Design the sequence.
């Protein structure tokens, strides 16, 4: 979402935000089907058009030298908060950057996204200010506040003109110690996160970067976990509060203050400002077993209609404190980190004309992270482009960089390092990174010297150890109809997934129930149950037979449909649906406990054929009968049900009480919307197959003293099934043969 | 989002005298090359940029994208520099190199350690007139540019925005952006490119901007040494002068191809950069749509009196050399909210036009501009961009340093007047990118 507005200034080329660090894995089958770079002949010799021209020569680069940094003061507050001060009075500005050592890497899988949501919520309400109040306070002085979570840390910042420094001194501690995490704002934050997940479905590059991490690290490592609609739906206020309580403590944080500050006064001011922030025990960060990587794995992510394929090739990277770190900086610069000075750019863009950009990068983290090569190209060139990159990886792994490449890389990496420190704020940001990794300011000053120590032998050795040409993963996000023939022609084995499927399967832990919210749900449920017809009448139902007519969306067309549905408690369901296409098509789905069968037409003959109900459909049907609208209120009123009241919402302008109910189906909790006026159930919302679904209920009529909705709409991602009920019978006569799997169907 | 808007606003405008703005010195060579220098004592860097007054609005209608294509060719070798060597050599001394093409200008960026000023100026002078036009390289580079274009082609938001411009501008070349399109690119010949080069890549159509640890004397010596011998050329053609956009009197609206995120764009034509009304319009844009406490953002994201109907929103005035646009947007997930988002944007704009801003809102907007300007002084490359942009937009490279003073003069009555005059519903262009699905 943060990228929407810059669109307004669509310009060609130009400085772009740094690409997100890419990530990476696939099951190996030995080397028979491993993607192997072909023994392509070297390019034919071409006539040098510049032969005989007097060429401009590059002046000699300066020898790497330490960067002269201003004095950096460091002290600890009484509560353990480590403070660094970079004073620079040249401009009347002050920035404060608070880093808390907790980020994505500390999240449990069942609470994916909690670090991001908790960080976002820091600016969404405190005991003193609501979200708008906070925004007005900082906007009025023309300052900025921001909060974000990275893989390793949560960062909170505030920047103002120095005359307004008291605004940051007030707001920063207020946000960190008095955040209220209001439900209504959390709903907006979750919507924004949902928007980002959705937007990635339109952004093949972002999707490829997520898929490659999952492929390399798998589903059992935090680096392989990617946010999904379902994981975001699973986040609750209590999770955020618990996260903040656990991690947001001063002895797990550091503060960097930069700019035109009064150094003498600062310590006292900070003690007063952050004095109420209490120390706490910091749990150890979770650790994960690194997955192995043997052979190649290729994942094709099918995005129909995409005309350009985004390609990522990944391996494991190295830790920031690895002695080979600077060697790796150098060989990676030569391979893909050095823009037009790199081999990938030369081979894929300049000579091949296959892409606008080709690069490689690696994570700079406490753990090993990933090394990823990144590019995109027209679909028809996808495999050829991947082969070009693989060839360069293989070559670098075998030979390392040339002396000329080493010289160029060292000159750039060492020479450009000092250019980044143009303001005290720049030094502060770099210092945060260095201190989080335990390096200190000497790291910043001596970085060019460390780069300068790299020589051809050390760079080659590091490249050989880190690049493993036979073990890698590849992701291609593009149109499978264009890509599969290329992959098959090469004999490359691949797994195919859909771009719209969640990258990581969601794992859900049982949500602890807030007693207050549970108590608040009880009267709402009692009213709803009474409005429905009363507990006794509902509990007596043994079977429900309904017929309905309406439309259902198939491939963007609304198709007329008739439904006959028989539900026999507790676990038998039969649905007969007739779709009125060019020819009527009959589909039967029957659930009998843990299994079932279905009847569907043969696509050629249109004759109905009987088969077992696939497992996924069994699960889906079980979920359907569990949330049956005639009975769900009864289930919600059970003593063991976990139901809580959450923030009210409005549907079509009508205020609704909203209840959140845990379901026995992992990741498929539901929200019940109860009309505040009529007390009738108006919506059941849930996530299924990664998609948000709303079942809406209207036109309530009385059937044997029970209020039944005669107009029902189930919608998901713009596709809707709308049904008007014809007949509703409670406890009809049921023919047991209805559920028996027939040999044939008439 | 808030940071982005603030930053954009800060770049577009600028400067309180109290901030101690470094002085800009300007001079002109005999061949017409303009030079602007902003020395910054102690800076570890020098930003060298050459701004050519040549953007997509200068392209022939059947060669859209040629300014951008040409920008690529500037890296493909000159008489005395091999292809890509410009970037490679500057990288090799620790520098950063890039270029960008927009509607009004193309600029080339060399951010380097300050000791290498003369070398960067030499390289820029070399490619001003000594470019090689090799058909094989043009052919390969066309494929590269096509991949850049395909990035937009696969983005519903980018496509929707391009459609928005196409609808808003019926005559003026701001109807397209610098990105270009595949068809025109295929049709572009080496001769077309050479023609464009000869018309626009001339000293009297360019400005050398240098910001950082340098003295004006150093820059003057380098500029004379390397650019001085290049002859002056004829004035560059300005096809857009014959394509003035007629006043829009009725609302235009179109629903375009869907994306994963719903987006409503509402835009109004505003005057060109030299018109003083743009200051009041920029203040109006900030009050309406910059910062989380702006009116449209609060209205769309909800507060105590309004439910949330969108993920986010905002407003920005895109000030250009010729009449630009003020554009509001709202991003949403729930298709049922599409009409509400559009109505809310119009409603907030109307309210500001009817009643004007509150005193604290006006002060807040001015503070945002002032603060943004002071922070923009921290980085040489951004300052060089501001100087170059200021020259393109107003003819005066130092104008941006006076913009904060101009903004300070804007009154509540000015804001009310310009909103009523320029941002009326009947003068709006609306483009809706619907969602592919529901919430």
Sequence:
């Amino acid at each position: 979402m943060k990228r929407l507005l810059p669109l307004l200034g669509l310009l060609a080329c130009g400085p772009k935000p740094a690409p997100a660090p890419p990530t990476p894995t696939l099951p190996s089958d030995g080397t028979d089907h491993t993607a192997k770079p072909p023994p392509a002949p070297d390019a034919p010799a071409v006539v040098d058009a510049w032969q005989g021209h007097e060429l401009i020569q590059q002046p000699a680069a300066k020898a790497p030298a330490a960067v002269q940094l201003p004095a950096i003061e460091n002290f600890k507050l009484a509560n353990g908060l480590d403070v660094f001060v970079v004073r620079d009075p040249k401009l009347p500005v002050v920035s404060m950057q608070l880093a808390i050592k907790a980020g994505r890497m500390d999240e449990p899988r069942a609470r994916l996204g909690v670090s991001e949501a908790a960080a976002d919520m820091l600016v969404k309400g405190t005991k003193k200010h609501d979200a708008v109040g906070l925004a007005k306070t900082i906007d009025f002085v023309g300052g900025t506040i921001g909060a974000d979570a990275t893989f390793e840390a949560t960062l909170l910042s505030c920047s103002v003109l120095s005359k307004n420094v008291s605004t940051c001194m007030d707001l920063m501690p207020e946000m960190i110690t008095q955040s209220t995490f209001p439900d209504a704002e959390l709903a907006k934050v979750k919507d924004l996160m949902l928007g980002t997940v959705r937007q990635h479905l339109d952004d093949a590059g972002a999707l490829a970067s997520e898929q490659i991490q999952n492929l390399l690290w798998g589903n059992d490592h935090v680096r392989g976990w990617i946010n999904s609609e379902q994981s975001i739906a699973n986040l609750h206020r209590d999770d955020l509060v618990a996260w903040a309580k656990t991690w947001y403590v001063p002895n797990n944080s550091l503060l960097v203050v930069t700019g035109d500050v009064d150094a003498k006064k600062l310590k006292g001011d900070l003690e007063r400002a952050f004095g109420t922030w209490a120390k706490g025990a910091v749990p150890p960060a979770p650790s994960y077993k690194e997955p192995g990587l043997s052979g190649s794995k290729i994942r094709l992510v099918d995005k129909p209609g995409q005309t350009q394929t985004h390609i990522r090739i990944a391996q494991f990277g190295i830790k920031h404190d690895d002695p080979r770190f600077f060697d790796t900086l150098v060989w990676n610069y030569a391979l893909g980190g050095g823009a037009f000075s790199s081999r990938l750019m030369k081979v894929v863009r300049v000579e091949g004309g296959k892409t606008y950009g080709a690069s490689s990068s690696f994570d700079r983290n406490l753990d090993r992270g990933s090394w990823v090569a990144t590019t995109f190209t027209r679909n028809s060139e996808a495999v050829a482009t991947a082969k070009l990159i693989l060839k360069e990886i293989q070559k670098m792994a075998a030979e390392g960089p040339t002396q000329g490449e080493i010289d160029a890389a060292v000159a750039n990496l060492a020479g450009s390092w000092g250019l980044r420190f143009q303001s005290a704020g720049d030094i502060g940001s770099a210092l945060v990174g260095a201190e989080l990794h335990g390096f200190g300011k000497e790291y910043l000053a001596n970085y060019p010297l460390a780069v300068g120590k790299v020589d051809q032998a050390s760079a080659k050795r590091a490249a050989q150890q880190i690049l493993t040409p036979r073990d890698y993963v590849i992701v291609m996000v593009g149109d499978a109809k264009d890509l599969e023939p290329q992959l098959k022609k090469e004999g490359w084995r691949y797994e195919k997934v859909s771009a719209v499927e969640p990258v990581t399967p969601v794992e859900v832990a049982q949500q602890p129930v807030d007693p207050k919210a549970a108590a608040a749900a009880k009267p709402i449920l009692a009213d709803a149950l009474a409005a429905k017809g009363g507990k006794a009448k509902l509990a007596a139902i043994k079977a429900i037979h309904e017929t309905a007519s309406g439309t259902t969306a198939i491939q963007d067309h609304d198709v007329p449909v008739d439904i006959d549905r028989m539900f026999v408690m507790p676990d038998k369901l039969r649905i007969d649906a007739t779709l009125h296409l060019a020819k009527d098509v009959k589909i039967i789905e029957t659930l009998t406990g843990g299994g079932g069968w279905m009847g569907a037409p043969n696509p050629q003959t249109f004759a109905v054929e009987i088969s077992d109900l696939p497992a996924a459909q069994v699960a889906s049907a079980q979920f359907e009968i569990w949330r049956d609208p005639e009975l769900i209120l009864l289930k919600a009123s059970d003593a063991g049900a976990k139901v809580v009241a959450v923030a009210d919402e409005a549907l079509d302008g009508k205020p609704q009480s909203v209840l959140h109910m845990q379901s026995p189906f992992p990741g498929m909790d539901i929200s019940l919307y109860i009309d505040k006026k009529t007390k009738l159930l108006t919506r059941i919302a849930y996530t299924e197959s990664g998609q948000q679904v709303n079942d809406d209920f209207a036109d309530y009529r009385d059937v044997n003293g029970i209020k039944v909705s005669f107009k029902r709409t189930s919608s998901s991602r713009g596709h809707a099934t709308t049904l008007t009920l014809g007949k509703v019978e409670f406890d009809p006569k049921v023919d047991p043969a209805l559920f028996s799997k027939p040999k044939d169907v008439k | 989002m808030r940071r982005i808007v603030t930053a954009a606003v800060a770049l577009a405008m600028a400067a309180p005298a109290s901030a101690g703005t470094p002085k800009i010195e300007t001079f002109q060579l005999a061949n017409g090359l303009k030079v602007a220098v902003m020395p910054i004592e102690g800076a570890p860097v020098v930003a060298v940029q050459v701004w050519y007054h040549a953007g997509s609005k200068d392209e022939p209608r059947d060669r859209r994208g040629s300014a951008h294509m040409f920008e690529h060719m500037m890296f493909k070798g000159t008489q005395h520099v091999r292809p890509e060597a410009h970037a490679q050599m500057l990288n090799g001394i620790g520098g950063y190199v890039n270029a960008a093409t927009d509607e009004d200008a193309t600029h080339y960026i060399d951010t380097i350690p300050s000791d290498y000023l003369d070398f960067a100026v030499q390289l820029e002078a070399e490619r001003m007139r000594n470019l090689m036009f090799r058909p094989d390289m043009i052919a390969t580079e066309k494929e590269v540019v096509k991949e850049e274009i395909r990035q937009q082609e696969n983005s519903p938001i980018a496509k929707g925005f391009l459609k928005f411009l196409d609808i808003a501008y019926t005559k003026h070349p701001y109807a397209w952006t610098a990105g270009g399109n595949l068809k025109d690119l295929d049709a572009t010949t080496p001769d077309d490119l050479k023609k464009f080069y000869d018309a626009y890549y001339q000293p009297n159509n360019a400005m050398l901007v240098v910001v950082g640890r340098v003295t004006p004397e150093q820059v003057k010596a380098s500029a004379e040494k390397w650019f001085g011998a290049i002859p002056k050329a004829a004035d560059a053609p300005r096809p857009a002068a014959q394509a003035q956009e007629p006043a829009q009197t009725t609302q235009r609206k179109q629903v375009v191809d869907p994306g994963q995120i719903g987006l409503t764009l509402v835009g109004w034509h505003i005057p060109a950069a030299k018109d003083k009304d743009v200051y009041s319009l920029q203040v109006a844009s900030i009050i309406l749509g910059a910062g989380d406490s702006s009116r449209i953002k609060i209205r769309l994201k909800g507060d105590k009196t309004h439910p949330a109907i969108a993920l986010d929103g905002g407003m920005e005035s895109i000030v250009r050399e010729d009449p630009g646009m003020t554009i509001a947007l709202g991003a949403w997930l729930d298709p049922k909210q599409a009409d509400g988002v559009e109505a809310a944007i119009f409603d907030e704009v109307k309210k500001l036009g009817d009643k004007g801003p509150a005193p604290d809102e006006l002060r807040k907007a001015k503070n945002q501009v002032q603060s943004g300007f002071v922070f923009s002084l921290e980085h040489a490359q951004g300052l060089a961009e501001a100087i170059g942009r200021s020259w393109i937009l107003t003819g005066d490279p130092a104008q941006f340093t006076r913009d904060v003073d101009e903004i300070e003069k804007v009154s509540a009555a000015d804001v009310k007047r310009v909103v009523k005059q320029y941002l009326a519903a009947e003068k709006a262009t609306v483009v809706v990118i619907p969602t592919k699905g529901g919430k």
Observations:
- The domain at 72-205+223-274 of chain A is CATH 3.30.830.10 (Cytochrome Bc1 Complex; Chain A, domain 1).
- The longest helix of chain A spans residues 183-201.
